[in-house]
Amino acid sequence: MKSILKATVAAAAMVVAGSAANAADVKACFVYVGPVGDFGWTYQHDQGRLAVEEKFGDKVETAYLESVPEGPDAERAIERFAREGCNIIFTTSFGYMNPTIKVAKKFPDVKFEHATGYKSADNVATYNSKFHEGRYIIGQIAAKQSKSGVAGYIASFPIPEVIAGINAFLLGAQSVNPDFKLKVVWVNTWFDPGKEADAAKALIDQGADIITQHTDSTAPLQVAQERGVHGFGQASDMINFAKDAQYTAIIDDWAPYYIHRVQDMLDGKWETGSSWDGLAEGHVVMAPYTNLPDDVVKMAQETEAKIKGGWEPFTGPITKQDGSVAAEDGVRLDDGAILGMNWYVQGVDDKLPQ
Amino acid sequence: MFEAVLLTVITAATPIMIAAIGELVVERSGVLNLGVEGMMIMGAVIGFAVANQTGSGSLGVVAAILAGMGMSALFGFLVLILVTNQVATGLALTILGIGFSGLIGEAFIGVPGLKLPELFIPGLSEIPFIGPVFFQQDAIVYLGFALVAAVAYVLFRTRLGLVLRAVGDNHGSAHALGYSVIRVRFAAILFGGACAGLAGAYMSLAYTPQWVENMTAGRGWIALALVVFSSWLPLRVVVGAYLFGAVSVLNLHAQAVEILDIPSQFLSSLPYLATIVVLVLISANRRLTLVNTPACLGKPFVPDR
Amino acid sequence: MRIELVKRKEHSQLMALLSPLIAVGLTALAAGIIFAVTGHNPFVGLYKFFIEPLTQQWSLEATIEKATPLILIGCGLAVCYLSNNWNIGAEGQFVVGALFGSFLPVLFPSFENAATLPLMLIFGAIGGALWALIPAILKTRFNTNEILTSLMLVYVASLILDYLVRGPWRDPDGYNFPESRIFSDAATLPDVFGGLMSLATPITLIVAVVLAIVLAKTLKGFEIRVMGESPRAGGFAGFSSKRLTIFAFALAGALAGLAGTMEVSGGLNQLLPVISPGYGFTAIIVAFLGRLNPIGIIVAGFVLALSYIGGEGVQSAMGVSNKIASVIQGLLLFFVLACDTLILYRIRMVSRRAPSGEASHV
C-alpha cells in the first residue's frame, strides 16, 4: 500500500513536469455524446479530431470525452476541459447548447464551438452541415430506381434537422416522379440496431423498395442487402455492410471545418460566427455512386454539381402538407426557415408528431 | 404480409426469449441475477470477435456461450461463495460487461460481420406460409425453442428439476435433505450465463450482424421482465417474448400504414404498459403466483447459519 | 484445500473499517494492471483516477454535486430495501418528480415570487411519491412483483418526459428544438456557502442525518427493520406490512422526486429530453455500498461520484477510453461487495481431509 502511495506521488510529479514539457500551441478538445465506436455521428466527429492531429502534429494537442450524457454531466465535462487548458472546445451535440453557453460565460478566454445549436456568444461559435443537400440527391436516386414508387424513411426524433431531411428527400424524389410516396417510421432513438432493423423490415413489408434512415447504425442497410432492396449510408460510407444494396452515402466530414478552425486559433484569427456549409465546402460528401445505371449516376452528379454551384434544394415551388404555399416558384427558403422547419411538404405519407 | 410480420416478430422475440429462459432457471434456483444485460453484451462481442477471427459462425456462438458463462461464474462466486447482495452484484455485472465489451470491441467497429446461415429443413420448408416461418430459420431460433422445451421438461418432469425447485423454494430443507444448495445454484447461474451469451450471439451474428457498443440496447432488462411476466413457467416465456416482439414490431407497422394518429412515444411505451397490465392480471390470481414464485428468490444461503 | 466461510459471532468492527480500504486497494491494483496492459502509465492513471479530483477545488465541488442526487435517492431506496420492498424504479420517480416540480416555471413562467421554489420542491416530492405509489399499490392490492413494475415505469416516465419536452412543453422561442423554456431566477435553486455548492447538498445531508436518526432511534425505524428481517415477527408486533410498503415506496419516491426537481432547477435550469444520466440506477448501488445506512450512503455516494469524475480525468488527460473507467467502476463495486463479506464472516482454509469439511458448502 505504502509503495503504491509513494509511486503515485512520484507519478503526480511526473504529470506536472510532463505537461510543462510538451506544451502544444493549441489544445483542441472534443465532447462527444456517443461512443467513438458508434460508426455514425460520434465516429465521424472523432475522425475529424484525428485529422486535426495528423495535420498539425506536435503543434496541436487534442483530447476527448465520449458518451457524455446531455444534462448535468455535459456542463461538468465542458468545464473540465476549460480548466485543463483547452483553448478551443468543440461540443458536438444539440443538447450541449446551454451548458456550453454557461461555461463559456465563466471562461471568456477559451473558445467554444457548438454543433447544431442556435445560441452563440463572443467566444461561442456554432457550426452545422447542410445534410439536406445530400438528401435531395438520394431522393432523386430513389425515385429513379424504385419500382414500387414507395420509399421508407427511418426517422429518429422530430427535430427540425430530421424534418428538413425528410422534406429534402421527398422534394428530390418528386422532381423525378411527382407521385412518389414516402412512408416515415419514428423509432424514437438515435441508435438501436435491433429496432432500426425491425423498422426497415416493416417498411419493406409495407411495399417500400428503397430504405433510407436518419438514425446511426448500419442495421437498416444490412436488412436492405438481405431482402434485395436498396438504401443509402448515413454519416459514414457503409458500403462494407451492404455491397449490393448501397447506392451512395451521405458522409459527414467534419475534418475541413475542424482543421480550418484550429488553424484560425494558431494564427490568432479565431472569431465567433455561425458556419452552415454543405457539399460545396466538402462538409457533406457523397460516397461513390454504386449499383446504379450510368444515367442515374450522371443525374446525381449533375445535381451535386448544381448544388455545389450554389443552388438550394429548398427552392420553390414548395407546397406544405396542408396545401398552403411555403415558397413561391423560384423563391428560396431562408436559412432560418430551414433550420427551424416544423412542417412536411405535400406528399409525405405521415402526420408530423407534435 | 402476415407471414412477413411474423418473420420479423420471430427475430425480435428470439434473443429476449433465450435470455429469459436462462434467467428463469436461475430464479427457480432462488437466485436473482440482474446482470443479464452485461452477460448478453459480452456474448455479443465475443461471439462477433471469434466468428470474425476464425470465419466460423458456430465457433462464435460457442465462444459467446462461454463468455456468458464466464461472466456468470464471476457473479456466482460473489453471491454464492462470498454471499454478496444479489441485486447490487447483478447491477455491477452489467456495468462491468458494458465497459469490458466496449473495450474488446474497439477493434471490430465498422467491420462487417458474418450472418449465421438459415437452415432449410428439407421438404417442410417448402410448405407455403408454414415453411418459411417455421422451417427456414437460423440454428439459434431452433435452439431457442429446444431450450424452452428442455427446460420445461427438466423442471417439471425430472428429479433434477425437482431438486432445483426445492432449492429455490426452501433452501434450508433442501440442504437438510443432503443436496448441495450452492452447487445446484452455481449450475443454474452458469446455465443462465450460457443462455444470455447465446442471446448476445444472436444479436451480433443473426439479428444485426455487426458489432457496435451497447448493441443489446436494454434487451437484457426486458428478459428479466419476461421471467416475472411468465410467472416462472417456461412455456409462458415464449408467449411473453412473442407478445413483446409483436407489440414492438406492430408499432412500427402501424406507423408505416398510418392507421394510428397518436404520439409515437405512446406507442413506444406500449410494450412496458402491456407488461405491467399482464403482470397485474397474472399476479391478481394469488394461488397461481404463490405456487410458482420461488420462495427463496434473492435470499442468500449460508449452510452453517 | 478449499475456502470456507465461518460466520463471526459478532460484526467485526475492525473489518467494517478495513474492508472498504482493502476494496479500494484491490481496485487500484486491478486498475493499475488494466492501465499497464492497455499501454498507459499505471501510476499516472491511478493518480488521475483516485487522487487528482480531491486536490482541486472545482473537481471537489463537481464530485459533491454529482454525489448529491445519488445520496438523496439512495437514502430513500435504503428504507425500501430495509423493509424488503424492491423498488428499482427510482429513475422513473426522479423523472416524474422533475416533471411535477417543473410545471410551475414551464407553464406559468410569470409566477415569480418567494413561494415559487418551495412549491416546486413540494410538487416534485409529491410527483415522485405518486409515481412510486403505483408499484406499491399494485403490490399490496394485487401482489404484483414490484421489481418489474417499478422498472417498467422507468421507461414510461422517460417517454412521458420525451413527449412533453418535444410537444406541449416545448420552449415557444426555441425553434422547435426539444427543450423547455429556461427557468426564471425565482425558480432556480440558489448556491450557498459563497457558491461552493448548490442548496441541494445541505438539504440532502439534512435528510440523510434525519433518516439515520429515525432508523436508529424511533419506533418507525424499528418497524422498518423488523418487517425487513422477519415480517411474521413484525405481524405479531402489530405492524402492517402493506402500510409499510406504501410508506417506504412513497418516501423513496418523494426523495427521488425531490432530487429530480433540484437537478432540473439547480443544474439544468430547464427540462431536456433526458435529464438523468442514470442516477436512479446508480443510487441502487450507492444504497448497497452504504450498507443501507444513511451515513454510509453519504460516503458511498461520494466514492461513486469520485469514480465518475476520476474516470473523466483519465479520459481527458490520457486518452483512455471511457470503457476503462466503466470497467474500473464495475471492479470497484465487486471488490467492495466481496470485502464486505469479511465483516460478517471469517475465511478459513480447510484441507480436504479435515473432518470439519462436512459443514462446507462449496
Describe what you observe in this structure.
- The complex is a heterotrimer of chains A (354), B (305) and C (362).
- Chain A is 41% helix and 20% strand.
- Chain A has 354 residues and is α/β, with parallel strands linked by helices.
- Chain B has 305 residues and is mainly α.
- Chain B has one domain (2-292): ABC transporter involved in vitamin B12 uptake, BtuC.
- The longest helix of chain B has 27 residues, at 2-28.
- Chain C has a two-stranded antiparallel sheet. A two-stranded antiparallel sheet of chain C has the order 2-3.
- Chain C has 13 helices and four strands.
- Chain C is mainly α and 362 residues long.
- In chain C, a hairpin with a 4-residue loop joins strand 2 (191-192) and strand 3 (197-198).
- Chains B and C meet through helix 3, helix 4, helix 10 and helix 12 of B and strand 1, helix 6, helix 11 and helix 13 of C.
Which key features would you list for this structure?
A: 354 residues; Rossmann fold; 7-stranded mixed beta sheet; 6-stranded parallel beta sheet; 11 helices; globular; C: 362 residues; mainly alpha; two-stranded antiparallel ribbon; 13 helices; 70% helix
Outline the fold blueprint.
The complex is a heterotrimer of chains A (354), B (305) and C (362).
Chain A: H1 2-21, E1 26-31, H2 41-56, E2 60-65, H3 72-83, E3 88-91, H4 97-106, E4 111-115, E5 124-129, H5 131-145, E6 150-155, H6 160-176, E7 181-186, H7 193-205, E8 210-213, H8 219-227, E9 230-235, E10 246-252, H9 255-267, E11 274-277, E12 284-286, H10 294-308, E13 318-319, E14 325-327, H11 335-339, E15 348-349
Parallel strand pairs in A: 1-2, 1-3, 3-4, 4-5, 5-11, 6-7, 6-8, 7-15, 8-9, 9-10
Antiparallel strand pairs in A: 10-12, 13-14
Chain B: H1 2-28, H2 36-54, H3 57-81, H4 86-105, H5 130-135, H6 139-157, H7 159-169, H8 171-176, H9 181-207, H10 219-229, H11 234-257, H12 264-284, H13 286-292
Helix pairs in contact in B: 1-6, 1-9, 1-10, 1-11, 2-3, 2-4, 2-9, 2-10, 3-4, 3-9, 6-7, 6-11, 7-9, 10-11, 10-12, 11-12
Chain C: E1 2-7, H1 13-37, H2 42-55, H3 57-82, H4 90-107, H5 116-142, H6 146-166, E2 191-192, E3 197-198, H7 200-217, H8 219-229, H9 231-236, H10 241-268, H11 279-289, H12 294-318, H13 322-344, E4 345-350
Antiparallel strand pairs in C: 1-4, 2-3
Helix pairs in contact in C: 1-2, 1-13, 2-3, 2-12, 3-7, 3-10, 3-11, 3-12, 4-5, 4-6, 4-10, 4-11, 5-6, 5-10, 7-8, 7-12, 11-12, 12-13
